Amino acid sequence: MSLDHNEIKNIVEEIVKKIAVDNYATKSASTGLNTGKVLGKGIFSNMEDAVNAAYYAQKDLIKLSVEKRKEIITEIRKIMLENAEKLSVEAIKETGIGRVKDRLLKTLLSINKTPGVEDIQSKVYTGDKGMTLEEYAPYGLIGAITPTTNPVESIINNSISMISAGNSVVFNTHPRAKNVSRKTIELINEAIISVGGPNNTVTTVAEPTIETGTFMMKHPKVKLITVTGGPGVVKAAFACGKKVIAAGPGNPPVVVDETADIKQAAKDIVDGASFDNNVLCIAEKEIIAVKEIYRELIDEMQKHGAVLVSSDVVAKLAQVALLPDGRVNSALVGKDAKFILSQIDMHVGDDIRLIMCETDRNHPFAVEELLMPIIPVIRADNVDEAIEMAYELEHNFFHTAMMHSKNVENLHKMARKSNVSIFVKNAPSYAGLGFNGEGVTTFTIASPTGEGITTAKTFTRMRRCVLAGYFRIV
Question: Which pTM does this prediction carry?
Answer without folding.
Answer: 0.90
